[in-house]
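Lecture 7 notes: from sequence to structure.

We start with a single chain of 229 residues. Read the sequence below before looking at the structure.
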Amino acid sequence: MSQNLRRYIRKIFAIVGKDVATEIRTKEMVSAMFVFSLLIIFIFNFTFDLRAGNVQTLAPGVLWVAITFAGMLGLSRSFVLEHDKGVLEGLLLAPVDRSTIYFGKMIGNIIFISMVAIVVLPVFMIVFNQPFTHVPRLGGIIVLGVIGLSGVGTLFSAMAVHTRAREVLLPIMLFPVIIPLILAAIRLTAAVLDGMLFADMSHWLTILVAFDVIFIAISYMLFEYVVEE
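Now the structure, written as tokens:
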């Protein structure tokens, strides 16, 4: 590994460490995301009369609604503290590549959303009476989904933070873009809960992985122009 690459990675994880330390100190974002995702699961559980015939149909959508909306809370706060306290301008003036800010923020968002998903998934399995043998494969799908959500969401969060209606604007911009990701994730989750093999759902897995790669690459290329605006 070259010296330049080591410095680059060190700068990325300096930003990640700053976000993690801030969250450990305040405990605002993850706790709100966790409570919100649990409320979604329980509200859906109590709202629908979940008989044996339709649990399998509704469960994948409920899981991803909980993860997506909880993730939206975290993404909406991604750049807020830096913007409100004037730290964002300092980051932009620092002699580092702007992409280090993007990847640092993206990795931080992946960590926070994944932490919530790790706790929510067992609750989901219990509430919807699903066998825990599905957890490893569901965990892999959730990781891929969270990576794509965080990759695109970090870019749009940087765009929305400069507006007054940032909490409203972020979902309006983000949801139309992540429709392929959510659809693929729900289809894969349904296939796992139905006991299908990955070979039978490889096309949805391909869509999910392709979304992650393509949109993270696009976000990486556009981030510098977004923060300059």
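The radius of gyration is 18 Å. Keep this in mind for problem set 3.
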